């Protein structure tokens, strides 16, 4: 097939180039084509993201971002989740994406190593307010965007992190462009161009790991903002790059370098429309980098056996080799996290905390916990090794080996992290997580209205009306 030729309505997504296959999928997938189980899971993922956004509104980064963008663009039609503001579509997408990802508590497509919902949910929330689409349209577009972002991430086989890029920003923009484009009614040709435009908007450095900077928080918001921009340009027949993925200077060759040789381009389209990657997207049980969850679970299990910090001589954490640079290095920084974001990417801190406090929750990211002498003293005794048996990136394994002061050794292994596709949280557990996060900022009745709005989203009614409760009256 000529990759430069626009597709017709009969495009075969199994054999088409990635750009064309994803464009056809986005244009041709109807609401009824998506299994009911997937649609139900979709609204639960959006509920999860909204709960995290509500909890994020308590933090300084939320108000500063809102103030900055409202100062530039003023008010608009799209609600900012849980805050007294309505912004223009792209600004709202930026803030909502930041809120959904602000606590690093949002979902992760494990094999794609991408947080899809924070960006795609924010993009479609803005797009439906702009276009006047229905709740069903929003759910359909959301599923399309998640499928695309997850699959584009899967191709890299975990490579983006290894070269210093954050996949959520790098690949999220493509999913958002397709999701917004679907809501805007783009043709297949326009959806193909939207992906080409999105390549020049893909971004996201991991340099924040060096100093705990806030940059990562806005990566999903930027992906949503940029995806909407790409879709709007494509709607006006703006000509986009023809080979955004596999071109000589396309996504994988430009950003992965030598690691691009390990890419499997077939993963972007294999089973498209039949295997739903949303169902392989993990809901986080802990507010920390997903790479650490296996080790947190292992530490929790050992702590529940009655092993207290005062009895421990040393701890060794086994983590996937591919994530060592992200959650274990530089070792001195990881043992003394300067702020909550440092802590969320610190194996020493995250493994030590359950032995001291019996848990790891948002409370363990407050300043009082970050300076707790007992946690820091135990973190000093935590070292790491690469896990030779890790199934990464299919799952994020973790093993913790504790040597007590009397010389006895205890170990616990989590080969598959809780929340992964092989150990998913139930929809009821997602609701419970939402309720805990929402309770930080909303009265129970208001939190219930939020929940009802999102869980009832898959309806043939205007999405803006269904979601009117998400914002708060402007001050």
From TrEMBL:
Residues 20-258 form the MmgE/PrpD N-terminal domain. It comes from Futiania mangrovi. One of its GO terms (molecular function) is lyase activity. This is MmgE/PrpD family protein. InterPro entries: MmgE/PrpD_sf (IPR036148), MmgE/PrpD_sf_1 (IPR042183), MmgE/PrpD_sf_2 (IPR042188), MmgE_PrpD (IPR005656), MmgE_PrpD_C (IPR045337), MmgE_PrpD_N (IPR045336). Pfam families: MmgE_PrpD_C (PF19305), MmgE_PrpD_N (PF03972). Residues 286-455 form the MmgE/PrpD C-terminal domain. Belongs to the PrpD family. It comes from the Bacteria.
């Amino acid at each position: 097939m000529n990759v430069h030729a626009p597709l017709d309505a009969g495009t075969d997504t199994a054999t088409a180039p990635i750009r064309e296959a994803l464009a056809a999928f986005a244009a041709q997938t109807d609401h009824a084509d998506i299994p009911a189980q997937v649609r139900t899971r979709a609204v639960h993922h959006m509920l999860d993201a909204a709960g995290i956004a509500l909890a994020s509104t308590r933090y300084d980064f939320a108000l500063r971002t809102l103030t900055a963008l409202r100062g530039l663009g003023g008010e608009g039609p799209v609600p900012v989740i849980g805050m007294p503001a309505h912004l223009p579509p792209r600004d709202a997408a930026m803030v909502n994406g930041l809120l959904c990802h602000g606590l690093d508590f949002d979902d992760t497509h494990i094999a794609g190593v991408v947080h899809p919902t924070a960006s795609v949910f924010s993009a479609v929330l803005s797009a439906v307010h702009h276009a006047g689409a229905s709740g069903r349209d929003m759910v359909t577009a959301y599923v399309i965007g998640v499928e695309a972002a997850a699959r584009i991430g899967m191709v890299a086989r975990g490579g983006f992190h290894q070269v210093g890029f954050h996949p959520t920003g790098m690949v999220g923009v493509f999913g958002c462009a397709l999701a917004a484009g679907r809501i805007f009614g783009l043709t297949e040709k326009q959806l193909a161009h939207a992906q080409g435009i999105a390549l020049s908007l893909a971004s996201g450095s991991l340099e924040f790991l060096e100093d705990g900077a806030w940059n990562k928080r806005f990566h999903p918001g930027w992906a949503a903002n940029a995806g909407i921009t790409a879709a709007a340009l494509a709607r006006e027949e703006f000509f986009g790059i023809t080979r955004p993925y596999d071109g000589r200077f396309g996504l994988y060759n430009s950003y992965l370098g030598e690691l691009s040789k390990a890419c499997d381009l077939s993963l972007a389209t294999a089973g498209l429309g039949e295997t739903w990657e949303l169902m392989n997207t993990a809901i986080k049980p802990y507010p920390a980098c997903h790479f650490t969850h296996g080790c947190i679970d292992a530490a929790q299990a050992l702590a529940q056996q009655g092993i207290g910090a005062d009895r421990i001589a040393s701890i060794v954490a086994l983590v996937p080799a591919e994530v060592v640079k992200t959650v274990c290095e530089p070792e001195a920084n990881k043992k003394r996290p300067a702020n909550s974001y440092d802590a969320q990417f610190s194996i020493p801190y995250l493994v030590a905390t359950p032995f001291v406090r019996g848990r790891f929750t948002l409370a363990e990211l407050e300043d009082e916990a970050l300076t707790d002498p007992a946690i820091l003293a135990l973190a000093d005794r935590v070292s790491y090794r690469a896990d030779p048996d890790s199934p990464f990136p299919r799952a994020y394994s973790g093993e913790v080996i504790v040597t007590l002061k009397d010389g006895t050794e205890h170990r616990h292994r989590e080969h598959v992290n809780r929340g992964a596709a092989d150990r998913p949280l139930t929809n009821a557990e997602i609701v419970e997580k939402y309720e805990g996060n929402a309770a930080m900022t909303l009265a129970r009745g208001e939190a219930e209205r939020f929940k009802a709005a999102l869980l009832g989203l898959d309806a043939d009614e205007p999405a803006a009306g269904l979601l009117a409760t998400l914002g708060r009256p402007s001050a």
